[in-house]
Amino acid sequence: MRFVAKLAIFFVLGAAVVAADPPRTVWDGVYTKEQVERGKKGYVSLCARCHGDKLLGNDDALPLVGKEFVKKWDGKTLEKLVEYTRKEMPSDGPGKLTRKEITDITTFVLSANDFPTGKTEVAPDLDVLKEIMIRSEKK
């Protein structure tokens, strides 16, 4: 077999292996403790008045912790959660927070739901956020 043909097969097979890699999930430690701390500050100043100090919600705001919350977002990407929050929250002035602020707050919410921290921050970039799945269970 000619070298060029072997090289072509190598790249095709390599691409198939890359395509078969499972997507990253929130169980992979996709944010840092420092990012969670920034997110907590943002949450306390911007979100706690409706969702509560313990993220349990109230009459008008849904809880951001627990099985119901995780089930609602299970199988969706971080991009969906961040963009929903950015466009819809806070309810009395949606769209005023930056994607970075919302991404940091989202890491605080994920941490409160017992998803692990990691060694690198998750970037507030839609292409990055689209590649991270929310999963209710570690698979």
Walkthrough of the structure:
- By secondary structure, the chain is an all-alpha fold.
- It has one domain (23-133): Cytochrome Bc1 Complex, Chain D, domain 2, CATH 1.10.760.10.
- The chain has seven helices and two strands.
- The protein has helices spanning 3-20, 33-46, 48-51, 67-73, 78-88, 99-112, 126-129; strands at residues 24-25, 132-133.
- It has a two-stranded parallel ribbon.
- The model has no long low-confidence stretch (mean pLDDT 90).
Summarize the structure.
The protein has one domain: Cytochrome Bc1 Complex, Chain D, domain 2. The protein is built from 7 helices and 2 strands. It starts with a helix and ends in a 6-residue tail after the last strand.
Structure keywords:
single chain; 139 residues; mainly alpha; Cytochrome Bc1 Complex, Chain D, domain 2; 7 helices; 2 strands; 52% helix; globular
Give the topology:
Elements: H1 3-20, E1 24-25, H2 33-46, H3 48-51, H4 67-73, H5 78-88, H6 99-112, H7 126-129, E2 132-133
Parallel strand pairs: 1-2
Helix pairs in contact: 2-6, 5-6
CATH architecture: Orthogonal Bundle
Structural class: mainly alpha
Termini gap = 41 Å
Rg: 19 Å
Total beta strands: 2
Q: What is the mean pLDDT?
A: 90
Count of alpha and pi helical runs:
7
Widest beta sheet: strand line-up: 1-2
